[in-house]
Write a structure and sequence with these properties.
mainly alpha; globular; 22 helices; about 500 residues
């Protein structure tokens, strides 16, 4: 009953808050904060496309930087195997240091890694750099999703969360376009701009109000809310702040001091979240386990159906199948379509919801996998077909399945478990990405490249069936309402509707 009362109070507070703040100014403030994070997304885009460019340039090269098939497979995948380390660290540190501090700190190793790539004289230097970048990328993913989810209102959360995918795709498109006229060293030099811009931009945005309240810093949370709701007066955010204080009190045993407005201090250390046994108990709660299941399976589907394993070797694959255009130009074209897909996904998410958008994106991805497998089985004299299918695959991924599982991390897990769960999910996701990428050559040797496409498509088909039955609709629903509903037993029709 107390949880139900809080949920109703929170929804009423949001509606009352809408009367006290200007919607345009509130939207503008949240967009500005999200754009500051987008500088980090540029770095993610640079990182995502760099292995493809480097492998394409150095594969079978005779210089000390030349890469064999084995070295290329490791270079294309080692970043993924290092990212779980960063995710595991951020699972704990983001709840201790805060979302903003973690997001700013991650830019330092990124800058160091790009410097190493620029001055590298052997493959050892290149591997050192991607290891550092892998850890850094894993470290930032959980706090960036937690931050966006906690600062945005439900009406904006879906589209603002998609900003990350849009701007990372812009970064990929910029770097792959420049790769047609520049070598990889100069691209590394340009990539240093990403961490520098992110450090400057993040210095001007507030930390997550929910995290500040959880640390007893209610005065700072009030100032953060004033900034995030359009640079308004304290009285304009008092209802939303009071609802957050009540919510954190419910979830983390905070004691409210009556004689100081909005002052909250920890009543005692919460045993559920401050010792290993308590953390394990928290992660084993039924609603948390169910969220893990949905997110893990979604990441598996995405890793296969979106052809992630083939992307580091994209230039090499196009050379082998006889692309009618230069592979670097094809890569730039595909990344441009990826940007279009990310923008369309951000717009359609609000219209279709996450369920239907998942099915649209996954359906297109599976079509590309199976049709590409069919083409590679018979190899007809139509060289534009594989280029068109790869282009469609690059469009279909960011349309939905690239972005939605990351959004689900911040939506399905309760606040008290979100930090740990986000880090664990990030670690598992990158473990899956590493496995699929590292085993790509082995799979091709076993069943040929066409068989690999059939395999990835089959995983997508099975995933489509699973998501139809188990994926809830969360678009336009507040995080608190999602937490309440996700823990209840509901019939399947209610479960799949907002």
């Amino acid at each position: 009953k107390r949880t139900l009362w809080f949920t109703r109070s929170y929804i009423m507070a949001i509606h009352e808050n809408k009367d006290n703040t200007d919607n345009f100014r509130s939207t503008l403030a949240q967009v500005v904060a999200t754009l500051a994070l987008s500088c980090l997304s540029f770095s993610i885009g640079f990182v995502a496309v760099m292995p493809t460019i480097v492998i394409g340039a150095l594969r079978n090269d005779t210089s000390p930087l030349g890469m064999s098939e084995t070295a290329a497979s490791w270079f294309g995948s080692v970043m993924f195997v290092m990212q779980p380390m960063g995710s595991g660290v951020s699972a704990f540190l983001q709840d201790i240091l805060g979302r903003k501090t973690c997001l700013m700190a991650v830019n330092i190793p990124n800058l160091i890694a790009w410097t190493i790539i620029y001055f590298s004289s052997s493959t050892l230097h290149l591997f050192m750099a991607v290891i550092i970048i892998g850890i850094a990328m894993g470290f930032l993913e959980a706090p960036i999703l937690s931050y966006v989810g906690e600062i945005t209102q439900p009406r904006l959360r879906g589209i603002l969360t998609s900003f990350s995918g849009v701007f990372s795709t812009i970064g990929m498109m910029i770097l792959s376009s420049l790769a047609t006229v520049m070598d990889w060293r100069n691209l590394a030099l340009i990539s240093m701009s990403g961490p520098v811009m992110a450090l400057v931009a993040l210095a001007f945005v507030p930390d997550s109000p929910a995290w500040l309240v959880s640390k007893g810093r209610v005065s700072d949370a009030e100032k953060a809310f004033q900034w995030l709701r359009g640079w308004v007066r304290p009285e304009d955010v008092k209802h939303e702040l009071a609802a957050i204080v009540s919510y954190v009190k419910e979830t983390q045993s905070l004691k409210i001091i009556d004689n100081v407005e909005y002052k909250a201090v920890p009543n005692k250390e919460n045993p559920v979240t401050t010792n290993p046994k308590g953390r394990l108990q928290l992660l084993m709660e039924p609603r948390v386990r169910k969220a893990f299941q949905i997110v893990f399976i979604y990441f598996t589907i995405m890793a296969c159906a979106a052809l992630l394993a083939m992307r580091p070797y994209f230039i090499e694959i196009l050379k082998d199948i006889g692309s009618p255009i230069r592979p670097h130009i094809a890569l730039a074209l595909c990344n441009a379509l990826q940007l279009v897909g990310a923008i369309c996904g951000g717009v359609l998410m609000r219209i279709l919801g996450k369920r239907r958008l998942s099915f649209l994106s996954l359906g297109l991805s599976v079509f590309c996998c199976l049709t590409l497998g069919l083409y590679l089985s018979y190899r007809p004299e139509f060289p534009w077909i594989p280029v068109a299918l790869f282009s469609l695959s690059y469009f279909a991924g960011p349309l939905g399945i690239f972005v939605i599982p990351w959004i689900l991390i911040m939506e399905l897990f309760p606040l008290r478990a979100r930090g740990m769960a986000g880090g664990i999910c990030g670690a598992v996701a990158h473990g899956l990405f590493f496995t699929t990428t590292k085993t790509y050559y082995s799979l091709v040797h076993l069943v040929d490249i066409s068989g690999a496409c059939y395999f990835y498509g089959a995983v997508g088909v099975l995933g489509f069936i699973y998501l139809y039955w188990d994926l809830p609709e969360t678009e336009g629903v507040s995080l608190e309402e999602i937490e309440r509903k996700f823990g209840e037993r509901r019939n399947s029709k209610q479960y799949r509707s907002p």
